[in-house]
Amino acid sequence: MWLPDSTVDVREVRALSRRAQLPGPIRAINSIGSSPVVLVTRSQVPSPAPGWSRLVPLLLGGSGPALLTPDPETSTVGLLAAAAYLGGPDGKPVSLAEARQRVRATAVAAPDTGGGAGAVLCRWAAAPDAGAPVSAIVSEQTWLRFIRMNRPGAECPGRPVSPGGVSVAPAGTPVLDHPLVEFTWNTPVQQSAVDGFRQWLFGGNGRDSREAVHLRDARPDCSGLELNPCVPADLDVTLDRYVQAQRPGRVLLALDTSGSMAKVAGPAGLTRFDVAARAVVQTLGQMGARDEFGLWTFPGAGGKGQRQPVPIAAGSERHRQRIAEALRGARPQGGTPLYDTIVAGMRAVAAPAPGVDRRALLVLTDGKDTGSAASTEDARRAVRDLTGRTGAVLFVVATGEAGCRDALDAPGGARLSLRDLVAADLGGECFDARPDQLSATVAELFKRLWRGE
What we know:
It is a single chain. The chain is α/β, with parallel strands linked by helices. The protein has two domains: 7-177 and 189-244, no CATH class; 247-451, von Willebrand factor, type A domain (Rossmann fold, 3-Layer(aba) Sandwich), CATH 3.40.50. Helix content is 36%, strand content 17%. It has 15 helices and 14 strands. Strands 2, 3, 4, 5, 6 and 7 form a six-stranded mixed sheet that branches. Strands 11-10-9-12-13-14 form a six-stranded mixed sheet, sandwiched between helices. A two-stranded antiparallel ribbon has the order 1-8. Helix 10 runs parallel beside helix 15.
């Protein structure tokens, strides 16, 4: 016999046997106890708690991960949790763009089954005042074990915890149905032992034992592999959506630091560069930990090319700090080698990077090109070639004296503009933004990029 946490695990065994064209190994399954998937949180939630599709949007947001869950690829609870936080009102997974946003607001920890209180709750409770996610998704059994120990969190290695919080079972939440699985290959002696164990489980002593390990009553209605109200019917779709949504984006920001960016941009005395840098820092929280991001400034040494203060890398907390530090240390001066920066930046984001989903170069500038070796036509051709071959897309935010429709110097009298450079027919875009519009424009653009729109 076998005592898994959920019918989800039994379905997987059946699927494996079918793929191997072996006889079905499952003789019978019966739920022996149950434990709903719950939200553990230090936030206020409506009472009574709504379903997951209404609750999740209330939890997500802010500058960092708001939700901590087990890994859907290795944990049954994690997979059921993903069905909850990636589910829409119609019971189907949300769109890929919405799923990307939700996954980026979710921190994935080790499975919460096994190991006592589990890695999820240890991580959730370790630093409630240090920017850690305020909510976690675990099984109710895991939560009750965690808080009802003689010393809550005693199994968390090497650090004190503060388990203050409440658990909420949203309406329609998935349930671990804890099946007793009997196999077809049992001998008569083995089957007799299984029958005796089953009778003990459902007798008084067995009921007391289930209560002692914080399981609710059995769910006879969940003793089926197909129409099982405890678990969603097609979790393969949920897992596929999760895997798609967590594929990282690759974005390079090239920020104009020419002398004109030192011009005052408003009554507060902030320069154009100050406004642009603040806008970028405020959007860093939209980036997922696996998303790749880099910062260039132009011009570089001698007024040519670019500086690369923060190379493209995964968006860890330290990486974000380096970006903020680099922006604080930059000083506007020199010319505007715009075309050289566009060509070099497009090549950088288009470089081989396995598993990357969305690639983009974002250029923020306030003026026309000065000093590039590349011509307008060189830049236009490079963008179209790289976008067509690799999917890397160019976005330009034009402020100050720059304008998306303004004519650029081009060979042969051609009237090209920044709109022509971005290859709009291939997905590129140019945005005009006054200094007072920069924050909103940059924030919306990064939101779209990280969502993969």
